[in-house]
Amino acid sequence: MNNPIRNWWRSQQFKLSLRRGDIRRATQLLQEIQKSGARLSWLEKLFRDKLQLERYSQEYKRKTETLSKQLTEASVKLCIR
Question: For labeling, which of 7, 24, 39, 81 is most exposed (least CB within 10 Å)?
Answer without folding.
Answer: 81
